[in-house]
Write a structure and sequence with these properties.
Radius of gyration: 18 Å
Helix content: 40-55%
Order of helices and strands: HHHHHEHEEHHHHH
């Protein structure tokens, strides 16, 4: 775990006594770019630099979940997401439009997420047969290019969204391997509804932490609605829905996808 933590620390300001609203300042300072300029005119950045900064801001949010959050649950999903991305079990793509990207990958619109902010990242999953007639899974994290100015202007909401995405990523990539290893096939635990509940509770956990830290922030009505359902974050989940990371990630096992 140490090399991931070391890399995560590189993205964050030294020390831990700072708020969510400043988590991206260190990356911006290293890149010598002005936050207000990006918020007002993101097109002032060339395409390559905007793509790189968008990825760095997203990864910085994950680093915060691992290293700066006081919630063990957020530490877990952040670390899981980091490992999955670091070991190439999910690919990050910065895209102009989520629906166009989904169509290019062969998703139908009914497979696309609903009730989402088009400026926030989404996990797309494809399962298909390879040449050996084995069903394999490909996972993509699509980050809209508009996520960069949105995150800089709304760090709490973007961190909450990143937590929700990290939870879905953990469920998509890690959970099938845990089920294969531990024979954990309880429908209540592994259903799509359980995935959604864990993701929403992770979003609420960030909002709860921001409120405890007395951060100033505004949220969309969709995220406030989530928080109203999970006012105590992870603790609001029904029994036996949440799970902790295993001591060693079974990412090299091969689950069977139905």
């Amino acid at each position: 775990m140490s090399r991931f933590i070391e890399a995560a620390e590189f993205l964050l300001p030294p020390g831990g006594n700072y708020g969510i609203n400043t988590i991206f300042n260190y990356v911006l300072a290293k890149e010598a770019v002005n936050k207000e300029m990006i918020i007002k005119n993101p097109n002032s950045l060339n395409q390559e630099k905007r793509r790189r900064l968008t990825k760095e801001v997203f990864i910085t949010a994950i680093a915060y979940l691992i290293q700066r959050s006081g919630s063990p649950a957020l530490n877990d999903i952040g670390y899981a997401a980091w490992c999955i991305i670091e070991r190439n079990f999910a690919q990050i793509a910065v895209v102009k439009d989520l629906f166009t990207y989904a169509n290019e990958l062969g998703f139908s619109l009914r497979d696309a997420p609903t009730n989402y902010n088009p400026k926030l990242p989404v996990v797309f999953v494809r399962r298909k047969e390879n040449d050996m007639k084995v069903v394999v899974q490909e996972t993509d994290i699509a980050i809209p290019s508009d996520f960069l100015p949105f995150a800089l202007e709304n760090p709490v909401e973007s961190l909450a969204a990143t937590a929700g995405i990290s939870s879905r990523l953990r469920d998509t990539v890690l959970l099938p391997k845990l089920r294969l290893q531990q024979k954990k096939n309880e429908p209540q635990f592994s259903s799509s509804e359980a995935h959604s509940q864990r993701s929403s509770a992770s979003i609420a956990e960030v909002i709860l932490e921001a409120k405890i830290k007395r951060e100033s922030f505004q949220l969309s009505k969709e995220l406030w609605a989530i928080f109203s359902i999970f006012p105590n974050g992870i603790e609001s989940l029904p029994p036996k829905i949440w799970y902790k990371n295993p001591p060693f990630f079974p990412l090299d096992s091969d689950p069977e996808f139905n």
